């Protein structure tokens, strides 16, 4: 089987599957640039309201193909080569990781940078940097502290020991643990819940939370009315009120293609 990223759609949810089962879904060849391209494409497709990332068979991803890293060691720390793994956190579209097995090294970074993680009981998370003599990058020294406490983050990074799914849930790193066979279905159910609400508001929420985490509470507080003013000019508010009064599910329009640029601009200009 060719090492690749498979793309399928489940209504408004885009599913991207890391597929290289012969190497435990390691990223080989052009898989990382391919994933980056597919993530950007999904984020720019207005009909896509959520993205689910998962792995083929019973593994999420073991990270980089180590044989390729041995021949090109600079790849492991190259920001451009690793751009795909941190990209989910930067997108306006929500990204859910359906972790159906081991998420090691770059696979761990990819799961870390998603908005929510749903894990099978067989999932294990491992930041391998300290064990192989590499500083943990890709949000491991920054974003991880937005999700778990300092002691949990330090132990995870400094021991480079695998963390089981139940322990990851207890720490808050994982939102839900389920039967491995149900991992994708549970992630899709959550993705469809998100897809039912206003996509414009979801993008504003993700932008606001990202700015607050990066710049602090005062910045986030100042940004709230600015984000609200951008979304106020869209039909979502009227539809939300009308659907409530008419006792029917809301039918929100797709977010305008330029919306994320506007949200990012008010975040930068606040």
From TrEMBL:
The keyword Lipid metabolism applies. Residues 241-270 are annotated as: Disordered. Keywords: Fatty acid metabolism, Lipid metabolism. One of its GO terms (molecular function) is enoyl-CoA hydratase activity. Residues 261-270 have a biased composition (Basic and acidic residues). The keyword NAD does not apply. It catalyses: a 4-saturated-(3S)-3-hydroxyacyl-CoA = a (3E)-enoyl-CoA + H2O; a (3S)-3-hydroxyacyl-CoA = a (2E)-enoyl-CoA + H2O. PROSITE patterns: ENOYL_COA_HYDRATASE. CDD domains: crotonase-like. SUPFAM superfamilies: ClpP/crotonase. InterPro entries: ClpP/crotonase-like_dom_sf, Enoyl-CoA_hyd/isom_CS, Enoyl-CoA_hydra/iso. It comes from the Bacteria. GO terms for biological process: fatty acid beta-oxidation. Could possibly oxidize fatty acids using specific components. PANTHER family: ENOYL-COA HYDRATASE, MITOCHONDRIAL (PTHR11941:SF54), ENOYL-COA HYDRATASE-RELATED (PTHR11941). Belongs to the enoyl-CoA hydratase/isomerase family. This is Enoyl-CoA hydratase. It comes from Rhodococcus opacus (Nocardia opaca).
């Amino acid at each position: 089987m060719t090492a690749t990223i498979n793309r399928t759609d489940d209504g408004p949810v885009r599913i991207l599957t890391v597929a290289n089962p012969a190497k435990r879904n390691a990223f080989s060849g052009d898989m990382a640039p391919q994933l980056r391209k597919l993530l950007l494409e999904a984020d720019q497709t207005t009909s896509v309201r959520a993205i689910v990332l998962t792995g083929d068979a019973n593994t999420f991803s073991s990270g980089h193909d180590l044989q390729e890293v041995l021949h090109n060691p600079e790849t492991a720390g190259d920001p451009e080569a690793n751009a795909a793994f941190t990209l989910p956190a930067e997108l306006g579209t929500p990204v859910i990781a359906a972790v159906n097995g081991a998420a090691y090294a770059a696979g761990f970074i990819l799961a870390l940078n998603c908005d929510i993680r749903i894990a099978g009981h067989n999932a294990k998370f491992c930041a391998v940097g300290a064990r192989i003599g590499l500083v943990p990058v890709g949000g491991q020294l920054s974003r991880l502290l937005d999700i778990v406490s300092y002691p949990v983050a330090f132990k995870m990074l400094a021991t480079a020991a695998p963390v089981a799914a139940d322990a990851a849930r207890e720490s808050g790193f994982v939102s839900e643990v389920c039967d491995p066979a149900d991992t994708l279905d549970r992630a899709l159910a959550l993705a469809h819940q998100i897809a039912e609400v206003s996509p414009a508001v979801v993008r504003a929420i993700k932008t606001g939370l990202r700015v607050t985490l990066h710049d602090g509470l005062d910045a986030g507080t100042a940004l709230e009315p600015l984000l609200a003013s951008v979304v106020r000019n869209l039909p979502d508010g009227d539809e939300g009120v009308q659907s409530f009064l008419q006792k029917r599910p809301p039918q929100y329009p797709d977010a305008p293609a330029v919306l994320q640029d506007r949200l990012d601009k008010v975040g930068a200009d606040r």
